[in-house]
Amino acid sequence: MREAQWPFPVAAAMGSSVRFKGIDREVRLRLPFPVRAYLASDAAVFTLRMPDDQEGAFQAACETIETVLSGIDTLPVLPSEAEEILTILPRERLKWTKDGRLLSAGTKTVKMRGRAKAVTFHVHDPRHIEDVLDRDMPTAWREADAAETAENRRKGAGKAALTRSGKSGPKLPTARRSKRDPEAVDLAGWREFDAEGFLR
């Protein structure tokens, strides 16, 4: 049996079991389907073991694995990975991505099992996710969102109070115009009479 090993890029996983699986999946997807069964991985190492009579396939697989692992640090962070790394909820990720606090590195479209249509979602740059994690930005964003929500509720309560006070206040009687009101009824000759003055 021929065997080769590569250290698993622990730093690239950023402590996420979901991203660990994503990196493992990324490496396997680059290999020919028959070769994937010969690749094993754990938290420390990738191991490829293949029969001696498959030397050509073994060498090609080694080159592919080395190429993938050399650029794995730039592998975009998927939504589920970002949520686990940053310990955030899906609604928080969506809100912060939409308002630009959690920067998008583009979108990815995949066909999910059990779904008729493909799903498109935002992915994130791993360096940005690391920066957000290191500075504990989710905590600051939650505090800012809580303050904004409290302010909106205060304003809403104030508007509601004004509305209620306006509806419950005494209604002022509306002035009813007399039929003699010249603006209400245009009597014949009235304008000429008004222009000349009353009993002038």
Which stretches are low in confidence, meaning pLDDT under 50 for 5 or more residues running? none
Rg, alpha carbons = 36 Å
Gross morphology: elongated
Strand-residue fraction?
Answer: 5-15%
The spatial strand order of the largest sheet comes to: 1-3-2
Give helix % range: 40-55%
Counting DSSP E segments of at least 2 residues, the number of strands comes to 5
What's the N-to-C terminus distance?
128 Å
The secondary-structure class comes to: mainly alpha
Round the mean pLDDT to the nearest integer and report it.
86
Query: If helices are DSSP runs of H or I spanning 4 or more residues, what is the number of helices?
Result: 9
The profile of the biggest β sheet is: 3 strands, antiparallel
Q: Output the helix-strand order.
A: EHHHEEHHHEEHHH
What is the chains' assembly state?
single chain
